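Here is one chain, start to finish.
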Amino acid sequence: MPTISMFYGIIIRMYFAPGEHSPPHFHVYYNEHKATVDIRTCEVLTGDLPKRQAKLALAWAELHQEELMANWKLVMNGEDPFKIQPLQ
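Its structure:
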């Protein structure tokens, strides 16, 4: 699963699974925690993250929503996603 961004110990990844799973989303990893975030709503769909890391990941998602949707379209076509600037 390609890593598309990393910041403050948070890893953002997106799966290659053309046509298999919806809604458009990405996966967030922080230590032993993991969550799935809806790109359109910037809300956690499943999983859990510590409060601070959840806020950081969701703020990053809001800033990069268009890029995330572009990456979603790429991976749904079996293409490599591009890297997205980390939260600074």
